[in-house]
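Recap for those who missed Tuesday's class. We walked through two folding examples back to back. For each one, the amino acid string is listed first and its predicted structure tokens come directly after. Nothing is annotated here on purpose, so try labeling regions yourself before you check the end of the notes.
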Amino acid sequence: MRTPLIAGNWKMHKTLPEARELVGAIRTGIEQLPDGRVDVVICPPYQLLFPMAKAIAGSRIMMGAQNAHFESQGAFTGEVSVPMLKDTGCTHVIIGHSERRQLFGEDNALLAKKVRAVVNAGLTAIYCVGETLEERERNETQQVVDRQIREVLAREIAPERLVIAYEPVWAIGTGRTATPSQAQEVHAFVRGKLQGIYDQRAADSVRILYGGSVKPGNAGELLAQPDIDGALVGGACLVAADFLAIIRAVFH
């Protein structure tokens, strides 16, 4: 049985006072939920990692970063390495978010290095895959996702250190959301690809999240699908009441 995972990607939002208020409210809400039924990860921007580690200390909340460089150190101005992230208390790192692909030109070859760096350091990679609107309209969703998996993942990447997030690019920040059946179809396809890389046991254990305008109003239907194991939440994670409502949807 896969434990649902709800991860909040803060993107480039929140000052320190705002972050403390948000995490305080999330922490209070999570303490009222049954233990062990859901995993929760917050992914603040870099400058908030150390203070947010203190803010979640002793709670059930885990912390992730939104990106990482694949080298452990070096002359890479403006970059942050996986060992540095581990030093802050991060347990997860988002790799390959569509905004990194679309806005910053990150390709599968680069993302393969990043996933390996995260996993080899003992952290969990939340690796993102998904198609653009044009690719979906050309019925290329499976081809795109297949390539994103095949060119980045390999057998030597420990599946227990891997989470996949399917995020259709056309649904991110647009208010549009894949229907539960559309999302389930791709999630099942991804699980089949994982079975080909690893084996059935590994494919059954890796959690696959849905990301793309997840809100309190649609979370329940999405999370009810058999191959959807949680959510990578964007805008809704910046409002404590909305993020908590999505987390509570796991229990319905």
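Example two. Treat it independently of the first, because the proteins are unrelated.
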Amino acid sequence: MFRTIQASAIIFAALLTPVIAEEVDDVHAEMTAAFGGVPTFVGGIADAALPGLWKTAKEFQFNPDTALDPKTKALISLAVSAQIPCEYCIWQDTGSAKTAGATDQEIAEAVAIAAMTRAWSTIFHGTQTDFDTFQAELGGN
């Protein structure tokens, strides 16, 4: 049975290869139109993963018509990036936030909120605060 599954997977992958290559070409064309070229790091992304990653970025992260405006998304991303930490993301998210209209003070507050969240999380977990008690004392939910 394993050989049958393995053979089916190989045949399926062979059938998908031209579709994936075409989708990758489409992504490269869209990136070139959007950025003036394909960033070098894109070459390190698996061809099978690239179309999905690009679709999510394009339709959610870069889309100004979602529930969150571009500035808010950039500030959230920056706060998370600072916690990971990811210097690539921090640099990009700071630029995106500024392009979307964020002030230096808004950027500083987003990073400070991320730091405070991390600090409180460290306290709660380090002191082994009981979650049920925590919820009861702070109003349930």
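Answers for example two:
The CA atoms of residues 27 and 107 lie 31 Å apart.
The chain is about 75% helix and 0% strand.
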